[in-house]
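Hi U.,

Before I forget, here's the chain from the pilot set. I'm dumping it here mostly so it's searchable later in email.
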Amino acid sequence: MNDETELLDKPQLPAVAPEAPVPAERTIDAGLPPSIRSAVRSHTIIWIVILSIGPLGLPLLWLSPKYSAWSKVLISLATVFFTVILPVAVTIYCGEFLVHELLDALEEANRAGGAI
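Structure:
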């Protein structure tokens, strides 16, 4: 056998590449400016925004990594309830039971001969 043939018949090991660096952790707030990133990570700021401007604060809640998905859903539903559904229900209640009573009293007074 020839020396050249022996070299080709030996198993070739793959070239060893240097170890690749660990990729940076990718989070949902990675592309945000530092001021917004700190607001998203603060429970106090999130609650102040939600309690002061209601549903407009929900994006901060959903960007926050500190809350689980279930708590985000529950807080969002509670926020929508207290800012949309409850005021509509109170308005309907007041219209049905308070304003109608007043209108009925005025009608009765007019039938009796004059306003109250």
